[in-house]
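Slide 14.
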Amino acid sequence: MSLLTKKIVNELSYEIIGGAIEVHKHLGSGLLEKVYENVSLTNYVIED
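Slide 15: predicted structure.
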């Protein structure tokens, strides 16, 4: 994997994990995975 590809993967991973943490902060724990997935996708579409 080239350095540029690694950089892109690292940046995307950072954004995805950060978004997941924000969703978890707002919703809390104990919900089904599909709930978190739907909110995460909605947030991604709104921000993009």
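Speaker note: DSSP finds two helices and no strands in the chain.
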